[in-house]
Every structure is written in structure tokens, then in C-alpha cells.
Design goal:
With 368 residues, the chain is an alpha/beta fold. Helix 1 packs across helix 3 and helix 7 packs across helix 8. It binds pyridoxal-5'-phosphate.
Length: 368
């Protein structure tokens, strides 16, 4: 018998979340961002549900090959462009569109021999200072690309650093707009947070939005808003079972470093899930968890293969009870991944991407 832990991927939720992106950006085309193996969900598992997107955006050339192998004939965008000159051969062969964010990538394109000119997305560093040409250097880069026979159409893109927070996007939009005002080409600016929070505001060009985290049902701006606020459903549930039960007397401690001491008599369940499954060790006592669909909390330290949950208020729960670490319980109760991430001092993105390879993953054919 395998350990009772498993991750479920919910195609219905992916498809509904994609529809939510469309509703937020009705005039835009939608990139389904499936980098990092679809944020840990598995590109092959997510593909059918996300085929309604206008294109797939990702980083890894192997992932681009995988999307083509799954049968996708539409646009694929390499968000960081190519990493070495020979990657351009794959772009030509598989008709991959690619970001161009630095002078080296233009040099490589200029030296690339191809019959098929490439569609490129010229990236501006409009303030995040990660990838891209500064506004001052952007036009010269555009002119260089425009002059190349290897380049077909040039689209314009940038990425926001604060779309989920108080600073917002206005300063980056202004920098982008000013430097691109009279340049032709489609625009792609908005990630999930910008799509949900800012797109309705005037002035955000959006021929293409890049929907990532929202597809997977996590709120990009938690805790200001939760997934329910945005109408998003979790696309991944991590479930396990209680494999042991302990009765505690006042003064008893739980787990490594005796990190939890019972102040009263308690009943706790030991769950087959630990940090080697991708559950964050940083989640301390009090992290929310569902047992048989009912909310309770963890107690003590998360160990490699197990963690403990408080069953004191759940008399019907015990050995074999279903435990939902995040996502939806079998009965439909919801525990947003964002709440667990917060308890670990991180974000839902990291938890879903860090699901450990040893956890069996099953596609939930029943939906939800
Ligand atoms: C360039 C780019 N576009 C879009 C996204 C999608 O972002 P999100 O998952 O916040 O929607 C990312 C994610 O990091 C990105 O790097």
C-alpha cells in the first residue's frame, strides 16, 4: 500500500479560472502561463482544461516541446526568450514566439539562419529591474529588430512588480506608454494581479494578458483579497489521512523540539504528510487544516513525513480520517492554499510549485 497522501488536480477548476481571466479581460487574448510545469500541476495534466486559452506562455524549451507534442498548434511564448543561440533553431522548427530582453538575444537572432521569420515580444524593463531594455534603450532595440530579416512581427511587453500591492502599476504603465507611444505592435503587460485588479482602469493596454496564478486558483493579492473574492477555485488539492491518534494530558509535548505543549487534555491525529511531500516546515502550530472537511489546526513541528493536527473538537474524526492540507476536501469544503502559505511566510505559488515528486498526483475526473 502506498502512503495515503495524494495531490488531486481539478480540470474543472482550471477551465473555470481561465473563464474568469477572460471575463476580467474580455477584449484581450489570454496566455495561459504554464511555466514551472504548470505551477506544479503538470503541463500534461492541465493541458486539456487550458486549451481554451489563446496561447501558452512558459520558459523552458523542453516544456515548449511538450506543449507542441500534446498537439497544440497555436501560439507558444518563451517568456525569457532563448538562453543560447541554438535555442533559436528550436524556435524556428516549432514556431515558438520568444521574448527579447537583452542585446545578446538580438545579436543571436541577427546571426540565426532561418527560412521562417520569428514573432518576438520585445521586453521593457519599465521599473521592476529584472529583465528587459530600459525605456531609454527600448526604441533602439526595436529598430534593430525591425531591420532584421529574421524577425516577423514585434510585440511589446513589460512585467509589473507591484500589481498585487499598494504601489500598483501606474508608474510602470506611464514609463511603458511614454516609450512605446508611436510604436506599432500588440501589447502584453498584465499578469494575474494586473488582470484582476487594474485592467478595468483606463490606460492599460492589453492585447494579451498573461494569466498565471489565477488559473491555479490562488489569489494573487492575498490576504487583501482571497480566492473566493476573485471567484477562483483551487486547481490542486493536497489530501492525506490520519495514520495515528494520541491522547495528550496537560504538559505533554508534541514532536521534535517539543515545540508544542498541551495546556489541557487533547486528542491529536498524526497525518501522513511532511516537508518531504512539499508541505512547508515553516508552518507552525495553528496552521489551518481540514479533517473530514472540518477546520482545525496543526500542532507542533512539521517533520519529514508527518505532522500533527488537533482533533479535540472533532470527536467523530480519528484513524483514517481524510485530511486536506490545501484545496478542497472530498465533501467540497475549501482550504485556500494562500492561508497555508501565509502561515509559512510565503505565497501560494511556492507551495504548488514545491509539491514533492514523491506525492502521487491524480487528475480529478469528477471535477471540482
Ligand atoms: C513575465 C511573466 N509574465 C506573467 C507571469 C504570470 O504571473 P502570475 O502568475 O502572477 O499571473 C509571470 C510570472 O512570474 C512572468 O514572469
Amino acid at each position: 500500500m502506498p502512503r495515503p497522501i495524494e495531490a488531486l488536480i481539478h480540470p474543472d477548476a482550471l477551465a473555470r479560472n481561465l473563464a474568469r481571466a477572460r471575463a476580467a479581460a474580455p477584449d484581450a487574448k489570454v496566455w495561459a502561463v504554464v511555466k514551472a510545469n504548470a505551477y506544479g500541476h503538470g503541463i500534461a495534466r492541465a493541458y486539456d482544461a487550458l486549451r481554451g486559452a489563446d496561447g501558452f506562455a512558459l520558459l523552458d524549451l523542453a516544456e515548449a516541446e511538450q506543449v507542441r507534442a500534446l498537439g497544440w498548434r497555436g501560439p507558444i511564448l518563451l517568456l525569457e526568450g532563448v538562453f543560447e543561440p541554438r535555442d533559436l533553431e528550436l524556435c524556428s522548427r516549432l514556431n515558438l514566439w520568444h521574448a527579447v530582453h537583452c542585446a545578446e538575444q538580438i545579436d543571436w537572432l541577427a546571426a540565426h539562419k532561418t527560412q521562417q521569420p520569428h514573432r518576438v515580444f520585445l521586453k521593457m524593463n519599465s521599473g521592476m529591474n529584472r529583465l528587459g531594455f530600459t525605456p531609454a534603450a527600448y526604441r533602439a532595440a526595436w529598430a534593430r529588430l525591425e531591420a532584421l530579416p529574421q524577425v516577423d512581427e514585434i510585440s511589446l511587453m513589460t512585467h509589473f512588480g507591484d500589481a498585487d500591492g499598494a504601489r500598483g502599476i501606474a508608474h510602470q504603465v506611464a514609463a511603458f506608454e511614454q516609450a512605446t507611444r508611436d510604436l506599432p505592435g500588440e501589447r502584453s503587460l498584465a499578469n494575474s494581479a494586473a488582470t484582476l485588479r487594474h485592467l478595468a482602469a483606463a490606460g492599460v493596454a492589453a492585447d494579451w494578458v498573461r494569466a498565471g496564478i489565477l488559473l491555479y486558483g490562488s489569489a494573487p493579492d492575498f490576504p487583501e483579497h482571497d480566492s473566493a473574492h476573485w471567484g477562483l477555485r483551487p486547481a490542486m488539492s493536497l489530501r492525506s489521512r490520519v495514520i495515528g491518534v494520541q491522547q495528550l494530558s496537560p504538559g505533554d509535548t508534541v514532536g521534535y523540539a517539543s515545540a508544542f505543549t498541551a495546556e489541557r487534555a487533547m486528542r491529536i491525529g498524526i497525518v501522513a504528510c511532511g516537508y518531504a511531500d512539499g508541505y512547508p516546515r515553516h508552518c507552525g502550530t495553528g496552521t489551518p487544516v481540514l479533517v473530514d472537511g472540518q477546520r482545525t489546526t496543526t500542532v507542533g513541528r512539521v517533520s519529514m513525513d508527518m505532522l500533527a493536527v488537533d482533533l479535540s473538537a472533532l470527536p467523530a474524526a480519528g484513524f483514517g480520517s481524510e485530511v486536506t492540507l490545501w484545496g478542497t476536501a472530498a465533501g467540497g469544503a475549501l482550504l485556500p492554499i494562500d492561508e497555508v502559505a501565509r502561515a509559512a511566510g510565503t505565497i501560494g505559488y511556492e507551495l504548488m510549485c514545491a509539491l514533492a515528486p514523491r506525492v502521487p498526483v491524480r487528475v480529478d475526473a469528477a471535477g471540482g
